[in-house]
Amino acid sequence: RKEVEQDPGPFNVPEGATVAFNCTYSNSASQSFFWYRQDCRKEPKLLMSVYSSGNEDGRFTAQLNRASQYISLLIRDSKLSDSATYLCVVNMRGTNNNDMRFGAGTRLTVKP
Amino acid sequence: ETGVTQSPTHLIKTRGQQVTLRCSSQSGHNTVSWYQQALGQGPQFIFQYYREEENGRGNFPPRFSGLQFPNYSSELNVNALELDDSALYLCASSLGGSEQFFGPGTRLTVL
After folding, report:
1. With an 8 Å Cβ cutoff, are B97 and A96 in contact?
2. Best mutation site among B36, B41, B45 for testing chain A: the one with the most A CBs within 10 Å?
3. Under an 8 A CB cutoff, do A43 and B90 touch?
4. What is the C-alpha to C-alpha distance for residues B75 and A72, in angstroms, rounded to an integer?
5. Cβ burial A8-28 (10 Å sphere, 16+ → b, else e)
6. Average pLDDT for residues B97-111, to the nearest whole number?
7. Closest to B4 measured CA to CA, from B81, B88, B101, B79
8. Nearest C-alpha of chain A: how many angstroms from B82?
9. pLDDT digit string (tens) for B29-85?
10. CB-hemisphere CA count at 13 Å for A5?
11. Chain B residues with CB inside 8 Å of A105's CB?
């Protein structure tokens, strides 16, 4: 089993659609979780951290299920500017973010 | 912009050569992490430096080594380059275990 596994994608959705990405991780001791966004030929940027209670930031909602070792990201009312690759990230060791493991990413294209 | 800079932007080397990549962290940050990103893949963790000491390492061979300086800038050294080392090398700076901010990367091509 891969350490961090994401939906293969790509996802092609119309503007205004709701889209959900899933991610599973292998290390049950992992403590911190994130979603990063990476635009084509750019560096990754933090989209949001993922907390046990779930968290929301505008149109974006992240959920964590520790029992199933599963993380999700929901994007509502998709915009053209949401087109990017979304990377699921799990810190494998404690909370010091000194062993961050990235998934391969899920590519999203939002079309007019 | 994140304030994290990397040099050079692009680099071409041949198999067996050695390369040094550089990273300047964001002001106030004391931690630098290095990642390798192959085409179509997510970044793979190489190692992290915290206050000039290695603070975690991924599944990379010893020919990948690093250094962090008193001003918290960092170098990644790769010896005996292989074709599979061709990738985008990213560094990320942070204040301890807080949010990591990535630099624009160095694209290394090994011929």
Report:
1. yes
2. B45
3. yes
4. 35
5. eeebebeeeeebebebbbeee
6. 92
7. B101
8. 22
9. 999 999 999 998 999 999 999 989 998 898 999 999 999 999 999 999 999 999 999
10. 9
11. 41-42
The chain A residue lying nearest B36, using CA atoms, is A102
- pLDDT by residue (tens digit) across A12-29? 999 999 999 999 999 888
pLDDT digits (tens, 9 = 90+) for A45-70: 999 999 888 899 999 999 999 999 99
Rounded Cα distance between B104 and B92, Å, is 9
């603070």: which residue's tokens?
A: B55
- Is A104 a residue whose pLDDT tops 80? yes
Phi, psi of A44 (to 5 degrees): -65, 145
Helix (H/G/I), strand (E/B), else coil: A68: coil
Q: How many CB atoms neighbour CB B1 within 10 A?
A: 8
Dist. CA A54–CA A71, nearest whole Å? 10
